[in-house]
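[recover] target loaded
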């Protein structure tokens, strides 16, 4: 059974983006966007990294590092996690590009 697609609005660094995803993943994607926004806001407010793209890269790097550390500490490893992070990153990048254009 396929999952219907929906579009949700996410807010990151005071910008609104529309992102498509399966309906069953909408709540999880919204939560991920809130987490990303918090991470990016902390990086921006620290004043050490400038530019939205650099802030996004640092936030993604920190999130992946945290995830890998948690996997190592728990002794679990989800082989799908890198692909899921890549897919989420691609969706956010597409939303940022669409906002620019």
């Amino acid at each position: 059974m396929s999952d219907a697609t929906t579009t949700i609005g996410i807010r990151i660094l005071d910008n609104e983006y529309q992102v498509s995803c399966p309906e069953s993943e909408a709540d999880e994607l919204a939560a991920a966007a809130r987490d990303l926004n918090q991470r990016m806001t902390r990086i921006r407010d620290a004043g050490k990294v400038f530019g939205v793209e650099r802030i996004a890269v640092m936030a993604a790097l920190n999130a992946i590092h945290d995830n890998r550390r948690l996997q190592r500490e728990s002794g679990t490893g989800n082989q799908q996690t890198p692909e899921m992070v890549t897919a989420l990153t691609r969706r956010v990048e597409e939303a940022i590009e669409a906002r620019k254009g």
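[recover] notes: The beta strands are 5-12, 15-22.
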